[in-house]
Amino acid sequence: MGEAPAFFADNLMGDSPKKVDSKSKGNETAIVVGSKIYVIDGVDHELGSTIGVRIFDKSSGEWRIPIVLGTKPKPSKDFSAVLLNDDRVLVVRGNSGSSECFWFLEVGTPFVREHEKTVGNEVVAWSKGVLGNVEKPIVISGPSGVGKGTLISKLMKEFPSMFGFSVSHTTRAPRAKEKNGIHYHFTDRNVMESEIKDGKFLEFASVHGNLYGTSVEAVEVVADAGKRCILDIDVQGARSVRASALEAIFIFIAPPSFDELEKRLRARATETEEQIQKRLRNARAELEQGKSSGLFDHILVNDDLETCYEKLKNILCLREAAKSAPKTIPESFNLSIKHPVSMIDQKLLINCTAAEHENTSTNMYVLDFLLKGGAPGRTRGLNMYAINPVTDDVNGNNQLHLTSSFD
Ligand SMILES: Nc1ncnc2c1ncn2[C@@H]1O[C@H](COP(=O)(O)OP(=O)(O)OP(=O)(O)O)[C@@H](O)[C@H]1O
Ligand SMILES: Nc1nc2c(ncn2[C@@H]2O[C@H](COP(=O)(O)O)[C@@H](O)[C@H]2O)c(=O)[nH]1
Predict the structure, then answer these.
(1) Dihedral through CA 301, CA 304, CA 308, CA 311, nearest 10?
(2) Residue nearest to atom 5 of ligand 2 (CA)
(3) Distance between CA 271 and CA 287 in Å, rounded?
(4) 195: burial class by Cβ within 10 Å (0-12, 13-18, 19+)?
(5) Residue 16 and residue 19: Cα distance in Å, rounded?
(6) 36-49 tens-digit pLDDT
(7) Complex ipTM
(8) Contact call for residues 29 and 79 (beta carbons, < 8 A)
(9) Tens digits of residue pLDDT in 170-216
(10) How far is the CA of 263 from the centre of ligand 1 (A)?
(11) Among 12, 72, 132, 358, which residue's CB has the most CB atoms within a 10 Å radius?
(12) Is the CB–ligand 2 distance for residue 233 below 6 Å?
Protein backbone atom coordinates (compact mmCIF):
# COMPACT_ATOMS: atom_id res chain seq x y z
CA MET A 1 0.00 0.00 0.00
CA GLY A 2 3.01 2.25 0.45
CA GLU A 3 3.31 2.76 -3.29
CA ALA A 4 -0.02 4.46 -3.53
CA PRO A 5 -0.25 8.13 -4.43
CA ALA A 6 -0.93 10.18 -1.34
CA PHE A 7 -4.14 12.09 -0.95
CA PHE A 8 -3.57 15.83 -0.89
CA ALA A 9 -5.95 17.66 1.39
CA ASP A 10 -4.51 21.12 0.76
CA ASN A 11 -7.29 22.36 -1.51
CA LEU A 12 -9.85 21.26 1.03
CA MET A 13 -8.14 22.56 4.12
CA GLY A 14 -8.20 26.20 3.22
CA ASP A 15 -4.91 27.10 4.94
CA SER A 16 -1.37 25.78 4.61
CA PRO A 17 -1.11 23.03 2.06
CA LYS A 18 -0.61 19.83 3.91
CA LYS A 19 0.10 16.40 2.57
CA VAL A 20 -1.69 13.84 4.64
CA ASP A 21 -0.80 10.21 4.93
CA SER A 22 -3.11 7.99 3.01
CA LYS A 23 -3.36 4.38 1.92
CA SER A 24 -5.19 5.33 -1.23
CA LYS A 25 -4.58 3.94 -4.68
CA GLY A 26 -5.88 7.13 -6.21
CA ASN A 27 -9.49 6.01 -6.68
CA GLU A 28 -11.12 8.20 -4.09
CA THR A 29 -13.46 11.11 -3.56
CA ALA A 30 -13.39 13.64 -0.74
CA ILE A 31 -16.53 15.17 0.72
CA VAL A 32 -16.20 18.09 3.12
CA VAL A 33 -18.69 18.30 5.97
CA GLY A 34 -17.86 21.09 8.43
CA SER A 35 -14.42 20.45 9.88
CA LYS A 36 -14.24 16.89 8.55
CA ILE A 37 -13.31 15.45 5.21
CA TYR A 38 -14.85 12.08 4.43
CA VAL A 39 -12.63 10.24 2.01
CA ILE A 40 -14.49 7.54 0.14
CA ASP A 41 -12.21 5.03 -1.50
CA GLY A 42 -13.32 2.67 -4.27
CA VAL A 43 -11.64 -0.14 -2.33
CA ASP A 44 -11.27 -0.48 1.39
CA HIS A 45 -7.63 -1.46 1.59
CA GLU A 46 -8.08 -3.24 4.93
CA LEU A 47 -11.08 -5.31 3.92
CA GLY A 48 -10.75 -5.34 0.13
CA SER A 49 -14.37 -6.38 -0.25
CA THR A 50 -16.06 -3.01 0.22
CA ILE A 51 -15.81 0.68 -0.58
CA GLY A 52 -13.70 2.25 2.19
CA VAL A 53 -14.29 5.34 4.30
CA ARG A 54 -11.75 7.40 6.24
CA ILE A 55 -12.18 10.73 7.96
CA PHE A 56 -9.68 13.55 8.00
CA ASP A 57 -10.22 15.94 10.90
CA LYS A 58 -9.11 19.37 9.70
CA SER A 59 -8.84 20.81 13.20
CA SER A 60 -6.50 18.13 14.57
CA GLY A 61 -4.90 17.17 11.26
CA GLU A 62 -5.52 13.51 12.06
CA TRP A 63 -7.00 10.63 10.12
CA ARG A 64 -9.72 8.63 11.82
CA ILE A 65 -11.11 5.26 10.89
CA PRO A 66 -14.83 5.24 11.66
CA ILE A 67 -16.96 2.35 12.82
CA VAL A 68 -18.97 1.45 9.72
CA LEU A 69 -22.57 0.32 10.21
CA GLY A 70 -25.00 -1.17 7.73
CA THR A 71 -24.70 -3.07 4.49
CA LYS A 72 -21.49 -2.02 2.78
CA PRO A 73 -21.22 -1.55 -0.98
CA LYS A 74 -18.89 -3.78 -2.96
CA PRO A 75 -15.68 -2.12 -4.22
CA SER A 76 -15.96 -0.01 -7.33
CA LYS A 77 -13.34 1.51 -9.60
CA ASP A 78 -15.84 4.04 -10.72
CA PHE A 79 -18.19 5.99 -8.53
CA SER A 80 -19.47 9.51 -7.87
CA ALA A 81 -20.39 11.03 -4.53
CA VAL A 82 -22.65 13.97 -3.73
CA LEU A 83 -23.37 15.49 -0.31
CA LEU A 84 -27.07 15.69 0.56
CA ASN A 85 -28.37 17.92 3.37
CA ASP A 86 -24.97 18.08 5.08
CA ASP A 87 -25.44 14.70 6.71
CA ARG A 88 -25.75 12.07 3.98
CA VAL A 89 -23.59 11.30 0.99
CA LEU A 90 -25.15 9.69 -2.05
CA VAL A 91 -22.68 7.35 -3.74
CA VAL A 92 -23.45 6.24 -7.28
CA ARG A 93 -21.49 3.14 -8.35
CA GLY A 94 -20.71 2.82 -12.03
CA ASN A 95 -20.79 -0.44 -13.97
CA SER A 96 -23.48 -1.87 -11.75
CA GLY A 97 -27.10 -2.84 -12.15
CA SER A 98 -29.96 -0.92 -10.59
CA SER A 99 -29.87 -2.97 -7.39
CA GLU A 100 -26.21 -2.14 -6.62
CA CYS A 101 -26.03 1.38 -7.99
CA PHE A 102 -27.20 3.77 -5.29
CA TRP A 103 -25.81 3.92 -1.80
CA PHE A 104 -26.26 6.38 1.05
CA LEU A 105 -23.53 7.06 3.57
CA GLU A 106 -24.87 8.75 6.69
CA VAL A 107 -22.18 10.94 8.16
CA GLY A 108 -23.89 13.24 10.64
CA THR A 109 -27.51 12.17 10.96
CA PRO A 110 -29.10 11.93 14.43
CA PHE A 111 -28.90 8.14 14.04
CA VAL A 112 -25.13 8.28 13.52
CA ARG A 113 -24.66 10.82 16.35
CA GLU A 114 -26.58 8.57 18.75
CA HIS A 115 -24.29 5.67 17.89
CA GLU A 116 -21.20 7.83 18.28
CA LYS A 117 -22.31 8.56 21.85
CA THR A 118 -22.84 4.84 22.52
CA VAL A 119 -19.53 3.61 21.10
CA GLY A 120 -17.33 6.68 21.75
CA ASN A 121 -15.94 6.67 18.20
CA GLU A 122 -16.66 8.22 14.81
CA VAL A 123 -19.50 6.34 13.12
CA VAL A 124 -20.78 6.26 9.55
CA ALA A 125 -23.66 4.15 8.29
CA TRP A 126 -24.26 2.74 4.81
CA SER A 127 -27.66 2.00 3.40
CA LYS A 128 -28.47 0.69 -0.03
CA GLY A 129 -30.79 2.79 -2.20
CA VAL A 130 -33.73 0.75 -3.42
CA LEU A 131 -35.72 1.94 -6.42
CA GLY A 132 -39.50 1.88 -6.33
CA ASN A 133 -42.25 3.30 -4.22
CA VAL A 134 -42.81 1.82 -0.83
CA GLU A 135 -45.41 2.30 1.85
CA LYS A 136 -44.11 3.95 4.99
CA PRO A 137 -43.75 1.65 8.00
CA ILE A 138 -46.27 2.14 10.80
CA VAL A 139 -45.07 2.76 14.36
CA ILE A 140 -47.70 1.94 16.98
CA SER A 141 -47.10 3.07 20.55
CA GLY A 142 -49.11 3.35 23.72
CA PRO A 143 -49.12 2.18 27.31
CA SER A 144 -48.96 -1.50 28.16
CA GLY A 145 -52.41 -3.11 28.03
CA VAL A 146 -54.04 -0.45 25.84
CA GLY A 147 -54.63 -2.93 23.01
CA LYS A 148 -51.78 -2.29 20.53
CA GLY A 149 -51.11 -5.99 20.00
CA THR A 150 -54.82 -6.71 19.60
CA LEU A 151 -55.22 -4.03 16.92
CA ILE A 152 -52.07 -5.15 15.08
CA SER A 153 -53.25 -8.79 15.11
CA LYS A 154 -56.55 -7.76 13.56
CA LEU A 155 -54.74 -5.82 10.83
CA MET A 156 -52.38 -8.69 10.05
CA LYS A 157 -55.26 -11.18 9.99
CA GLU A 158 -57.36 -9.08 7.62
CA PHE A 159 -54.46 -8.08 5.35
CA PRO A 160 -51.91 -10.90 5.60
CA SER A 161 -50.19 -10.08 2.33
CA MET A 162 -50.05 -6.35 2.96
CA PHE A 163 -48.57 -6.03 6.45
CA GLY A 164 -45.66 -7.65 8.20
CA PHE A 165 -44.73 -7.40 11.87
CA SER A 166 -41.31 -6.22 12.96
CA VAL A 167 -40.26 -8.88 15.45
CA SER A 168 -38.45 -7.09 18.26
CA HIS A 169 -35.69 -8.39 20.51
CA THR A 170 -36.32 -8.45 24.24
CA THR A 171 -34.56 -9.59 27.39
CA ARG A 172 -37.84 -10.32 29.16
CA ALA A 173 -38.91 -13.94 29.66
CA PRO A 174 -41.42 -15.39 27.18
CA ARG A 175 -45.08 -15.62 28.25
CA ALA A 176 -46.85 -18.98 28.10
CA LYS A 177 -48.07 -18.71 24.47
CA GLU A 178 -45.23 -16.64 23.07
CA LYS A 179 -42.93 -18.20 20.47
CA ASN A 180 -39.33 -17.20 19.87
CA GLY A 181 -38.92 -15.53 16.48
CA ILE A 182 -42.65 -14.89 16.10
CA HIS A 183 -43.67 -12.69 19.02
CA TYR A 184 -40.14 -11.65 19.97
CA HIS A 185 -36.56 -12.70 19.57
CA PHE A 186 -35.92 -13.58 23.21
CA THR A 187 -32.32 -12.89 24.06
CA ASP A 188 -29.78 -12.38 26.87
CA ARG A 189 -28.94 -8.87 28.02
CA ASN A 190 -25.20 -9.36 27.33
CA VAL A 191 -25.82 -10.50 23.78
CA MET A 192 -28.27 -7.70 23.09
CA GLU A 193 -26.00 -5.03 24.56
CA SER A 194 -23.14 -6.19 22.38
CA GLU A 195 -25.36 -6.21 19.28
CA ILE A 196 -26.52 -2.69 20.12
CA LYS A 197 -22.86 -1.62 20.17
CA ASP A 198 -22.37 -3.24 16.77
CA GLY A 199 -25.13 -1.02 15.37
CA LYS A 200 -27.57 -3.85 14.70
CA PHE A 201 -30.50 -1.96 16.20
CA LEU A 202 -32.57 0.78 14.67
CA GLU A 203 -33.77 1.67 18.17
CA PHE A 204 -33.74 0.19 21.65
CA ALA A 205 -35.04 1.16 25.07
CA SER A 206 -35.26 -0.04 28.61
CA VAL A 207 -38.98 -0.69 29.15
CA HIS A 208 -40.50 -1.87 32.45
CA GLY A 209 -37.03 -3.08 33.54
CA ASN A 210 -36.20 -5.06 30.40
CA LEU A 211 -34.34 -4.22 27.22
CA TYR A 212 -36.42 -4.08 24.02
CA GLY A 213 -35.21 -3.18 20.55
CA THR A 214 -35.97 -3.22 16.85
CA SER A 215 -33.13 -4.66 14.81
CA VAL A 216 -32.44 -3.22 11.39
CA GLU A 217 -32.95 -6.71 10.03
CA ALA A 218 -36.42 -7.04 11.59
CA VAL A 219 -37.62 -4.08 9.51
CA GLU A 220 -35.72 -5.08 6.38
CA VAL A 221 -37.05 -8.64 6.36
CA VAL A 222 -40.60 -7.29 6.14
CA ALA A 223 -39.78 -4.72 3.46
CA ASP A 224 -37.84 -7.31 1.44
CA ALA A 225 -40.98 -9.47 1.46
CA GLY A 226 -42.76 -6.53 -0.20
CA LYS A 227 -44.89 -5.86 2.87
CA ARG A 228 -45.57 -2.78 4.94
CA CYS A 229 -43.83 -3.00 8.26
CA ILE A 230 -45.63 -2.53 11.60
CA LEU A 231 -43.59 -1.72 14.71
CA ASP A 232 -45.11 -2.13 18.19
CA ILE A 233 -42.73 -0.10 20.35
CA ASP A 234 -42.81 2.18 23.38
CA VAL A 235 -42.68 6.01 23.26
CA GLN A 236 -38.88 6.17 23.78
CA GLY A 237 -38.46 3.82 20.83
CA ALA A 238 -40.84 5.89 18.72
CA ARG A 239 -38.74 8.97 19.48
CA SER A 240 -35.57 7.16 18.34
CA VAL A 241 -37.24 6.01 15.13
CA ARG A 242 -38.34 9.60 14.47
CA ALA A 243 -34.68 10.62 14.75
CA SER A 244 -33.59 7.85 12.37
CA ALA A 245 -33.79 7.95 8.59
CA LEU A 246 -36.76 5.57 8.64
CA GLU A 247 -39.72 7.67 7.61
CA ALA A 248 -42.81 6.19 9.21
CA ILE A 249 -46.35 6.99 10.30
CA PHE A 250 -46.54 7.34 14.08
CA ILE A 251 -49.77 6.33 15.80
CA PHE A 252 -50.39 6.57 19.54
CA ILE A 253 -53.09 4.38 21.09
CA ALA A 254 -54.64 5.82 24.24
CA PRO A 255 -57.06 4.12 26.66
CA PRO A 256 -60.53 5.61 27.29
CA SER A 257 -59.52 5.96 30.97
CA PHE A 258 -56.76 4.93 33.33
CA ASP A 259 -59.15 2.62 35.20
CA GLU A 260 -60.01 0.82 31.97
CA LEU A 261 -56.30 0.43 31.20
CA GLU A 262 -55.72 -1.17 34.60
CA LYS A 263 -58.73 -3.44 34.07
CA ARG A 264 -57.36 -4.68 30.72
CA LEU A 265 -53.89 -5.22 32.05
CA ARG A 266 -55.23 -7.29 34.97
CA ALA A 267 -57.68 -9.19 32.76
CA ARG A 268 -54.84 -10.21 30.45
CA ALA A 269 -53.28 -11.94 33.45
CA THR A 270 -49.78 -12.14 32.00
CA GLU A 271 -47.91 -10.08 34.61
CA THR A 272 -47.32 -10.40 38.34
CA GLU A 273 -48.85 -7.78 40.65
CA GLU A 274 -45.46 -6.09 40.96
CA GLN A 275 -45.06 -5.94 37.19
CA ILE A 276 -48.59 -4.60 36.76
CA GLN A 277 -47.82 -1.80 39.23
CA LYS A 278 -44.62 -0.95 37.36
CA ARG A 279 -46.43 -0.91 33.99
CA LEU A 280 -49.20 1.31 35.38
CA ARG A 281 -46.66 3.77 36.79
CA ASN A 282 -44.92 3.94 33.42
CA ALA A 283 -48.28 4.26 31.66
CA ARG A 284 -48.93 7.65 33.29
CA ALA A 285 -45.68 9.05 31.91
CA GLU A 286 -46.24 7.46 28.50
CA LEU A 287 -49.75 8.90 28.25
CA GLU A 288 -48.46 12.36 29.05
CA GLN A 289 -45.62 12.14 26.54
CA GLY A 290 -47.69 10.47 23.86
CA LYS A 291 -50.49 12.98 23.95
CA SER A 292 -48.43 16.12 24.26
CA SER A 293 -45.09 15.64 22.56
CA GLY A 294 -46.14 16.19 18.95
CA LEU A 295 -44.24 13.02 18.20
CA PHE A 296 -47.29 11.22 16.88
CA ASP A 297 -49.15 11.87 13.65
CA HIS A 298 -52.36 10.33 15.00
CA ILE A 299 -53.80 9.61 18.44
CA LEU A 300 -56.51 6.95 18.57
CA VAL A 301 -58.56 6.20 21.68
CA ASN A 302 -59.14 2.48 21.94
CA ASP A 303 -62.54 2.47 23.64
CA ASP A 304 -64.65 0.18 21.52
CA LEU A 305 -62.24 -2.18 19.74
CA GLU A 306 -64.13 -2.35 16.42
CA THR A 307 -64.53 1.45 16.23
CA CYS A 308 -60.85 1.98 16.95
CA TYR A 309 -59.88 -0.64 14.38
CA GLU A 310 -61.99 1.08 11.70
CA LYS A 311 -60.31 4.40 12.50
CA LEU A 312 -56.91 2.77 12.22
CA LYS A 313 -57.82 1.33 8.82
CA ASN A 314 -59.06 4.76 7.73
CA ILE A 315 -55.76 6.36 8.60
CA LEU A 316 -53.84 3.78 6.62
CA CYS A 317 -56.18 3.80 3.61
CA LEU A 318 -56.15 7.59 3.42
CA ARG A 319 -52.42 7.60 3.34
CA GLU A 320 -52.39 5.01 0.60
CA ALA A 321 -54.94 6.90 -1.53
CA ALA A 322 -52.90 10.08 -1.24
CA LYS A 323 -49.84 8.38 -2.67
CA SER A 324 -48.75 9.82 -5.99
CA ALA A 325 -48.61 7.61 -9.04
CA PRO A 326 -45.19 6.05 -9.50
CA LYS A 327 -43.08 7.18 -12.42
CA THR A 328 -41.52 4.71 -14.78
CA ILE A 329 -38.50 3.03 -13.27
CA PRO A 330 -36.12 1.21 -15.55
CA GLU A 331 -36.52 -2.49 -14.72
CA SER A 332 -32.82 -3.02 -14.91
CA PHE A 333 -30.10 -0.86 -16.26
CA ASN A 334 -26.38 -0.70 -16.07
CA LEU A 335 -24.72 2.61 -15.35
CA SER A 336 -21.86 2.93 -17.77
CA ILE A 337 -18.30 3.80 -16.91
CA LYS A 338 -18.82 7.56 -16.97
CA HIS A 339 -21.67 9.00 -15.01
CA PRO A 340 -21.18 12.63 -14.00
CA VAL A 341 -23.84 13.61 -11.54
CA SER A 342 -25.33 16.96 -10.65
CA MET A 343 -28.07 18.15 -8.33
CA ILE A 344 -31.04 20.09 -9.63
CA ASP A 345 -34.08 20.92 -7.57
CA GLN A 346 -33.44 18.17 -4.97
CA LYS A 347 -33.01 15.66 -7.76
CA LEU A 348 -29.88 14.00 -9.01
CA LEU A 349 -29.19 14.17 -12.70
CA ILE A 350 -27.08 11.25 -13.92
CA ASN A 351 -25.41 11.60 -17.24
CA CYS A 352 -24.65 8.11 -18.55
CA THR A 353 -22.24 8.03 -21.41
CA ALA A 354 -21.21 4.64 -22.67
CA ALA A 355 -17.42 4.53 -22.91
CA GLU A 356 -17.39 2.81 -26.23
CA HIS A 357 -19.79 5.32 -27.80
CA GLU A 358 -18.43 8.29 -25.99
CA ASN A 359 -19.72 10.95 -28.33
CA THR A 360 -22.82 9.28 -29.57
CA SER A 361 -25.01 7.84 -26.83
CA THR A 362 -25.89 9.91 -23.83
CA ASN A 363 -28.70 8.89 -21.53
CA MET A 364 -29.94 11.12 -18.78
CA TYR A 365 -31.58 9.68 -15.72
CA VAL A 366 -33.16 11.58 -12.87
CA LEU A 367 -32.97 10.10 -9.39
CA ASP A 368 -35.65 11.52 -7.14
CA PHE A 369 -34.71 10.82 -3.52
CA LEU A 370 -37.11 13.06 -1.64
CA LEU A 371 -38.45 9.92 0.00
CA LYS A 372 -36.39 8.62 2.88
CA GLY A 373 -36.07 5.04 3.95
CA GLY A 374 -34.53 2.66 6.42
CA ALA A 375 -31.15 3.01 8.01
CA PRO A 376 -28.72 1.49 8.25
CA GLY A 377 -29.62 -1.09 5.65
CA ARG A 378 -31.75 0.05 2.76
CA THR A 379 -33.01 3.48 1.85
CA ARG A 380 -36.21 2.75 0.03
CA GLY A 381 -38.58 4.64 -2.19
CA LEU A 382 -36.11 6.10 -4.68
CA ASN A 383 -37.68 7.08 -7.95
CA MET A 384 -35.73 6.94 -11.19
CA TYR A 385 -36.74 7.88 -14.68
CA ALA A 386 -35.05 8.58 -17.99
CA ILE A 387 -35.36 11.99 -19.58
CA ASN A 388 -34.50 13.42 -22.92
CA PRO A 389 -31.91 16.09 -22.09
CA VAL A 390 -33.11 18.24 -24.98
CA THR A 391 -36.86 18.22 -24.50
CA ASP A 392 -37.64 17.21 -20.92
CA ASP A 393 -37.26 19.02 -17.61
CA VAL A 394 -35.98 17.19 -14.50
CA ASN A 395 -39.52 16.09 -13.68
CA GLY A 396 -39.69 14.24 -16.97
CA ASN A 397 -42.20 16.73 -18.40
CA ASN A 398 -41.81 17.59 -22.03
CA GLN A 399 -40.99 21.25 -22.41
CA LEU A 400 -40.80 23.62 -25.33
CA HIS A 401 -37.28 23.59 -26.71
CA LEU A 402 -36.28 27.03 -27.99
CA THR A 403 -33.66 26.84 -30.70
CA SER A 404 -31.38 29.79 -31.14
CA SER A 405 -30.58 31.28 -34.50
CA PHE A 406 -27.13 29.66 -34.29
CA ASP A 407 -28.57 26.12 -34.16
N1 LIG B 1 -61.01 -2.03 23.00
C2 LIG B 1 -60.82 -2.97 23.91
N3 LIG B 1 -61.77 -3.21 24.83
C4 LIG B 1 -61.61 -4.15 25.79
N5 LIG B 1 -60.51 -4.92 25.90
C6 LIG B 1 -59.52 -4.73 24.99
C7 LIG B 1 -59.62 -3.77 23.97
N8 LIG B 1 -58.50 -3.79 23.23
C9 LIG B 1 -57.71 -4.76 23.78
N10 LIG B 1 -58.33 -5.33 24.83
C11 LIG B 1 -57.79 -6.37 25.72
O12 LIG B 1 -56.84 -5.74 26.57
C13 LIG B 1 -55.76 -6.61 26.87
C14 LIG B 1 -54.46 -5.94 26.51
O15 LIG B 1 -54.38 -5.84 25.11
P16 LIG B 1 -53.00 -6.01 24.34
O17 LIG B 1 -52.27 -7.19 24.86
O18 LIG B 1 -53.32 -5.96 22.89
O19 LIG B 1 -52.28 -4.69 24.83
P20 LIG B 1 -50.87 -4.09 24.39
O21 LIG B 1 -51.05 -2.64 24.26
O22 LIG B 1 -50.35 -4.82 23.21
O23 LIG B 1 -49.98 -4.41 25.67
P24 LIG B 1 -48.36 -4.53 25.79
O25 LIG B 1 -47.82 -3.23 25.48
O26 LIG B 1 -48.16 -4.92 27.22
O27 LIG B 1 -47.93 -5.60 24.86
C28 LIG B 1 -56.02 -7.88 26.10
O29 LIG B 1 -56.57 -8.86 26.98
C30 LIG B 1 -57.03 -7.49 25.04
O31 LIG B 1 -57.87 -8.54 24.68
N1 LIG C 1 -38.62 0.61 22.30
C2 LIG C 1 -39.17 -0.59 22.07
N3 LIG C 1 -40.27 -0.96 22.75
C4 LIG C 1 -40.79 -2.18 22.49
C5 LIG C 1 -40.23 -3.04 21.53
N6 LIG C 1 -40.97 -4.17 21.49
C7 LIG C 1 -41.97 -3.99 22.36
N8 LIG C 1 -41.87 -2.81 22.95
C9 LIG C 1 -42.74 -2.21 23.97
O10 LIG C 1 -42.51 -2.80 25.21
C11 LIG C 1 -43.69 -2.72 26.00
C12 LIG C 1 -43.92 -4.00 26.72
O13 LIG C 1 -44.14 -5.05 25.83
P14 LIG C 1 -44.56 -6.50 26.40
O15 LIG C 1 -44.60 -7.39 25.20
O16 LIG C 1 -43.53 -6.90 27.40
O17 LIG C 1 -45.93 -6.33 27.02
C18 LIG C 1 -44.81 -2.35 25.04
O19 LIG C 1 -45.13 -0.98 25.26
C20 LIG C 1 -44.20 -2.49 23.69
O21 LIG C 1 -44.72 -1.56 22.77
C22 LIG C 1 -39.07 -2.59 20.82
O23 LIG C 1 -38.51 -3.27 19.96
N24 LIG C 1 -38.57 -1.38 21.14
Answers:
(1) -110
(2) 233
(3) 20
(4) middle
(5) 10
(6) 999 999 888 888 88
(7) 0.98
(8) yes
(9) 999 999 999 999 999 999 999 999 999 888 999 999 999 999 999 99
(10) 10
(11) 72
(12) yes
